[in-house]
Specification:
The chain is 57% helix and 0% strand. The protein is mainly alpha-helical. Helix 5 packs across helix 6 (134-145), helix 5 runs antiparallel to helix 9 and helix 8 (177-196) runs antiparallel to helix 9.
């Protein structure tokens, strides 16, 4: 008898990332309210830090540097966290199967920083905090688009081994009708979120940082090739 397959075969990198975000959310939930707010603001990306208000905002000038990374591990509530974890399971898993753990985190952090910089440009001086891993996961999604649509299923309809599908070039990716259809749908969805101020956060004034999503996505699309080390296997066919 063959060994049983696990119900959820999640890469270690994705498990660690999700575990860190859940642990932070649990800690935020049990902290006294005032302390929790201070920790939240210290970790969050707040554009006003860079217009002379850094000393007055929790975290001070040190957080003006660290928040480019720390904002990714804190979320606006359990629903916000759940959406991001599910999103990461869908696309981050495919990416994590192709690259070493260190490369997965370096790539994701780079996309998150790109998202934060994009948000900063569009919201210069704003006091509203931005939190969540959405920009980093948008980069993971963009990376996945460079290989998930370029593989055939197995001989009996099995899911392709995405870990060994050759990475498409940027021009091949943008010429794919499937990829471009997915990108257009995703951009329209983000535009809808931006126009309707739809939110997954807990506060009434929280909004989806769609500009950060696009910044992270573009970064992931452009730079993933520098991190990808997958080699095609003998049983993988490219879509012609």
């Amino acid at each position: 008898m063959s060994a049983r397959e696990p119900i959820l075969n999640v890469p270690r990198a994705v498990t660690l990332a999700a575990g860190l975000m859940v642990a932070v959310q649990v800690a935020m939930s049990v902290l006294p309210f005032d302390t929790g707010v201070r920790v939240f603001l210290t970790l969050a990306m707040i554009p006003a830090r860079y217009t002379g208000g850094g000393a007055e905002i929790p975290g001070g000038y040190i957080a003006a540097i660290t928040s480019f990374v720390t904002y990714m591990i804190v979320h606006g509530g359990w629903l916000h966290l759940l959406v991001n974890v599910l999103w990461m399971l869908a696309f981050g898993t495919a990416v994590a199967r192709r690259v070493p753990l260190s490369s997965f985190f370096a790539f994701s952090i780079l996309c998150g920083i790109a998202g934060a910089l994009t948000h900063l440009v569009f919201h210069w001086g704003d006091m509203a905090p931005m939190v969540g891993a959405s920009a980093a996961i948008s980069g993971q999604m963009a990376a996945a688009l460079r290989f998930i649509f370029f593989a055939r299923s197995g001989p009996h309809g099995e899911i392709p081994d995405f870990a060994h599908v050759p990475l498409a070039s940027l021009s091949e990716t943008l010429r794919s009708g499937k990829v471009m259809g997915f990108i257009v749908f995703w951009l329209v969805l983000n535009a809808y979120f931006g126009m309707t101020s739809m939110s997954f956060g807990t506060g009434p004034d929280s909004e989806i940082a769609w500009e950060a999503h696009i910044g992270g996505f573009l970064c992931g699309l452009l730079v993933f090739g520098y991190f990808d080390r997958a080699r095609s296997g003998p049983d993988v066919e490219r879509v012609r």
